[in-house]
Every structure is written in structure tokens, then in C-alpha cells.
Amino acid sequence: EAGVVQSPRYKIIEKKQPVAFWCNPISGHNTLYWYLQNLGQGPELLIRYENEEAVDDSQLPKDRFSAERLKGVDSTLKIQPAELGDSAVYLCASSLGGADREGGQFFGPGTRLTVL
Amino acid sequence: GNSVTQMEGPVTLSEEAFLTINCTYTATGYPSLFWYVQYPGEGLQLLLKATKADDKGSNKGFEATYRKETTSFHLEKGSVQVSDSAVYFCALRAAGNKLTFGGGTRVLVKP
């Protein structure tokens, strides 16, 4: 069974440019998460989707970050414009959600963003 | 709010040594507790979990016991291998299915 797929794996851009990350969760997983991981720190939740609905986006900086999961499967996270401080690893995770509250979250390999 | 504190690394050990990584938490209610591992160049993988007090999670020779009285979930392994070199994250999940992670502990096992 394929795991969580993310692309690209690495991205280098100049500040003020836009950037987008893509995530395809494990088949059948209704819940999708985007996390931000700064160097030497643990991941921090940006947004959580239950199917196509964003049920927790309280930590998403909405002035420059946006996300969508239009058909309740894959998802895109966008930054526009990027700032130097956005350099980090962006992780996508998925889980069964719903009644499976005790199930774990499965993480993708992440996209490492460098803003110059 | 919820928070997780784990010992800072790096932790450097020789092969077959005993490993302990301390983790304590602050949370409202009764969270589930997790250990995730991140091998070089890979994503986080769930290592083990415990969902209620006194539960013991175990996997691949690693163990951790949910201690409500000390709000701790320390990770242990009796005999580490070079392949255990990774970054280990303690995490809790409270209401809303949201994971809160500690800062991670890098472990380096030398042959």
C-alpha cells in the first residue's frame, strides 16, 4: 500500500515568490493534515481537513498561506508571497479519522522549502 | 494549553547500550500519547502509542508506559543498534484529534 505522497521533495525560491506543495494521502483516509517543521523542532499543525472541510485552521497564517482539498482526496498548500522565515519542512499526514480516534497519523516525507 | 517536553539531544550511545529518552506532558483531560521516529531523509513514523494511564506501548524493542501520576511517557530500549540512529518525537493527542509534538531528541548510536 502506498504511503502519503508529497511533491516536490525540495524547493528553492526567492522571497516574494509564490510556492505550492501537493499531498496525496493514503487511500481511504478521510483526515488530512498539513504541518510545519522548523529545523530542530517538532511539527506544528497548520490545518486539518475532514474530507473537504477545513475543521481546524487556527494556526494557518491566512494573510499569505492558503490550502484546499477540493474533492476530499489530495490537497495543495500555497504560500504567496513567501518570506525568508517560511524556510522549513512542510509535512502532510493522513489518518482514517472519524470513529478511528485511536489510530495513528501517517506522515509523508515532507517538502523542504528554502527561501532566499 | 497542551505541551510536550522532551530531553534535548543529541544522545550518543554505543551499540548494545540502554537508551532512555524522557518525555513529560501537560494537557487537559486524558490525552493519548505517542512516540514517532524520523530516520534520516524520511518522514515521521509511528513507533508506539498508549491511550490510557498505565498502558504500555511497545514496538521494535522500544517501550514506553503512560504514567498519569508523573505525566510522563519515557521511551526505553534495552539494547540499541546503529540502525536506531534517528530523531525521536514524543507527542500527545487531546480533543480534536490534534497532535502536539515535543522538540525531538536526536539519537546517534556508534558501532
Describe this structure in words.
The complex is a heterodimer of chains A (116) and B (111). Chain A has no helices and eleven strands. Chain A has 116 residues and is mainly β. The N and C termini of chain A lie far apart (37 Å). The mean pLDDT of chain A is 91. Helices cover 0% and strands 51% of the residues of chain B. In chain B, the strands form three sheets. In chain B, strands 2, 5, 6, 10, 11 and 12 form a six-stranded mixed sheet that branches. A four-stranded antiparallel sheet of chain B has the order 3-9-8-7, with no helix packed on it. The model of chain B has no long low-confidence stretch (mean pLDDT 93). Chain B is globular and about 45 Å long. Chain B contains no helices and twelve strands. The interface between A and B is medium-sized, with 26 and 22 residues.
Helix-strand blueprint:
The complex is a heterodimer of chains A (116) and B (111).
Chain A: E1 5-7, E2 10-13, E3 19-24, E4 31-37, E5 44-50, E6 53-56, E7 65-68, E8 75-79, E9 88-95, E10 106-107, E11 111-115
Chain B: E1 3-6, E2 11-14, E3 19-21, E4 23-26, E5 32-38, E6 44-50, E7 56-59, E8 62-65, E9 75-77, E10 86-93, E11 99-101, E12 105-110
Parallel strand pairs in B: 2-12
Antiparallel strand pairs in B: 1-4, 3-9, 5-6, 5-10, 7-8, 8-9, 10-11, 10-12
Summarize the structure.
The complex is a heterodimer of chains A (116) and B (111). With 116 residues, chain A is mostly beta strands. Chain A has strands at 5-7, 10-13, 19-24, 31-37, 44-50, 53-56, 65-68, 75-79, 88-95, 106-107, 111-115.
What structural class do the secondary elements of chain B suggest? mainly beta
Distance between the terminal alpha carbons of chain A, to the nearest Å?
37 Å
**Main β-sheet of chain A: number of strands, strand sense, barrel status?**
7 strands, mixed
SSE class of chain A:
mainly beta
Largest interface: A-B, 26 and 22 residues
Average pLDDT rating of chain B: 93
